[in-house]
Amino acid sequence: MFAADSAVTLHYGVDPQGREIINVLPHGHKVFNLHRELPVCAMTCGLGNIGAESISTLAKDFRIALTKEKNYQLDPRNYTIEEIAVKARRFLFEERYSKLGTKPSSDMSFYVGGYSSGADSPERWLVKIEAATQSSPAPICEGAKGASGVNWGGQPEAIYRVLMGVGLAHKEVLKSTGLTDAQVDAASKALLTQMQAQMVHPAMPVQDAIDLADFLVETTKRFVRFLPGADTVGGDTDIAVVTKHEGFKWVRRKHYFNRTLNPSLSEIDHAR
Fold it and tell me: What is the mean pLDDT of residues 180-207?
């Protein structure tokens, strides 16, 4: 299950004083179908563009590469989600980001999830580009086969508070009271163990998983709206689901026009 808002932070370069120029726009695409025939999906958060191309455009270029380019092409009968994540890192970081003259100051996360060929359970992998070091570590498995749970990125505070029961800064707050590092670690472990909300089950019905994902995104939107600063979370919510037998399916997505204006095209996936 992948769900994301539509706000994207774009890097425009730097001004004459060397200050980074950014803007937040509300109509970005962050959830992607990576292969028309396979049960795989991707989602991004953080940096909204690499150079002159949006992450949405690059994700679609990557989708084409997975089917047509020799160095990226997948074997539909023998592929893994890890393989797709490794290729995504090469495509986004090695071939695009690393060649930029001026690197943006925002991190980027690119999640790849779905079912490897012949697999009974899904996986989730994370590709990160870290602005501080201008590097990208090897993809990380955040949801191994057979495991269930929630991964989130971008603006994590709201979801962290809802699911974990405390804020991200709880360790710093505990330390400010005079506790030793060992006491802080013990208290943090107790809080995270006992305050955590168990909202996910491996056999959860798909519709309930959709509702949970929608709830978490909408909660984050409203939380960020009232914080000082730009609305870095907002716009429409796009949701896609990948299941073992049905593969990739859109649950909700933005369209460039109202379907009632073009009823004959209502079933065409024009925004792919």
Answer: 95
Other Cβ atoms less than 10 A from the Cβ of 234: the count is 19
Name the CA dihedral angle for 107, 113, 117, 120, rounded to a multiple of 10 degrees.
140
The DSSP output letter for 266 is T
Q: Which of 47, 75, 74, 209 is nearest to 136 (CA)?
A: 47
CA–CA distance, 99 with 240 (Å, rounded to integer) = 32
Residue 223, pLDDT score? 97
Return the CATH fold of 2-150+204-265. Glutamine Phosphoribosylpyrophosphate, subunit 1, domain 1 (3.60.20)
* pLDDT average, residue stretch 13-25: 87
Alpha-carbon span 254 to 267, nearest angstrom: 14
Residue 255's pLDDT is what? 78
* Portions of the chain given CATH number 3.60.20: 2-150+204-265
Q: In terms of DSSP bridges, do strands 40-46 and 31-33 run parallel, antiparallel, or are they unpaired?
A: antiparallel
Q: What's the average model confidence in pLDDT over 74-95?
A: 98
Residue identified by tokens 């204006």 is 261
* Distance from C-alpha of 33 to C-alpha of 241, rounded to nearest angstrom: 10
Cα 272 from chain centroid? 18
Contact 14, 245 (CB under 8 A): no
Residue 101 backbone class (left: φ over 0; alpha: ψ -120 to 50; beta: rest): alpha
- Express each pLDDT in 94-131 by its tens digit: 999 999 998 999 999 999 999 999 999 999 999 999 99
| Burial class of 266 by CB neighbour count within 10 A (0 to 12, 13 to 18, 19+) | exposed
> CA 193: distance to chain centroid?
25
